[in-house]
Amino acid sequence: MLKKLKWFVVGIFICIVGFGIWFLDGALPIGTGYSAKYLCSQVFVAGRNADQVFEKDVKPTHLLFRLVTPKINYNEKTVTSKAFGFWKPMTAVYREGCGCTLAVDTDPKTLREQAKGLLLAPQKRSHTQWPSGSVVDLKNLPANMNKTKITNALENAFTEPGPDTMRNTQAIVVVLGNRIIAEKYAPGVTPNTPMLGWSMCKSVTNTLVGILVKEGLLDLYSPAPVAEWRSDGDKRGAITLDMLMRMSSGLEFEEVYGPFKDATDMLYNSKSMSELAASMPLGAAPDTRWSYSSGTANIIARIVTDNTGGSLLSFYTFLRKRLLDKIHAYSAIIEPDASGVFVGSSYMFASARDWARFGLLLKNDGIWNNERILPKGWVKYSTTPTPAAPMGQYGAQFWLNAGEKDKPENRKFPSLPSDLYYCGGFNGQIVAVIPSRNMVIVRLGVTHDDSWSHESFIKQVLEAVQ
Fold first, then answer.
1. Which of the two residues, 378 and 125, has the higher pLDDT score?
2. Cβ–Cβ contacts within 10 Å for residue 383, how many?
3. What percent of the chain stands above pLDDT 70?
4. Distance from C-alpha of 379 to C-alpha of 453, rounded to nearest angstrom
5. Are 224 and 376 in contact (CB under 8 A)?
């Protein structure tokens, strides 16, 4: 009896160890992939200190990341991360002009070949008033602004409310009309530091679609041009670009960030993020269910890439000439995956002032310096609640504060204006546009807990401006 019990215990132990090895083998590429990609971008795009980034930004994100050891090659501009110093290595490669990319099912040499000829002439910012130039006057403020209140709001935003909180606010910019009326930065962050917006990139992807629609290259209401869905009898063929924009395609996609989940598998273990997303089956009939999906945003990104020439060079030329250079957002870059398609769900870097420029373009209905960049009615389309979103909280790649159709008071931020719409991202990123108050509010940071409240902060700012 004791002998049988002994072998039973040994068997259980072997099963537990085996399961642990299997789990780590599948889960660790997320840890090594995330840390390699994040560090690469923060060091070579944003110019931040690697040790500080790893300790303050990476490690608190997930327990897995504490098992990871990164190694930075400053000559080759690569970052390689390994678990326990040897397991599941992942390498991210920096390429001038398009930032960092994980080398999934490829190698650094091939990625560099892919980006040949990409060097675009850098734009110099003029010494004129923001938003066209670099000059910001914070002395001669509007008469309807309470300087004490706005100062207190910003100070509170950069103050940790508790000894163990991880709010980590890094930058704030407040725009009234067409001028910056307040801004503040954490140590090591400047008005020119490119900062990761995470899912705020989805809203930028929206504007790229808008430009292509304006130019007659895309039709919102035709079946989306996705090759994987063109087979006879494939019900996904009924999905339109409009349904993708409104996150109402019906495609299955698990927007959960953890081991063995669609979102993390796409971002850290896929050469082509759009192919993984496009391979998903229908979970509901098209346009009957709203389901937030980063996979959907990357399908749209491939559609944009295909319709701007299909190469890194053609896409980045389009991105700069049709959008970024026009609004003087010279620090901005959207990074691509290893297949050469920009990651429209997640990977745009821009300075806080350039994120504010993007918000200003939206507030001004897609017009910049009297030039219409987005189609007439595009902002209204983008900020109209998609019917299947229960609280009117989503439009077309934008978050809304509209509320329920028959109960507008039941909304995401009850104390804020219902016409507020925003780009939102992981770790507490936001570009909030409030047309009724003629304002844009940008907050960037790396928040690892629930100590940050967009609603409380924006409310304080609004109370400072009559």
1. 378
2. 22
3. 94
4. 26
5. no
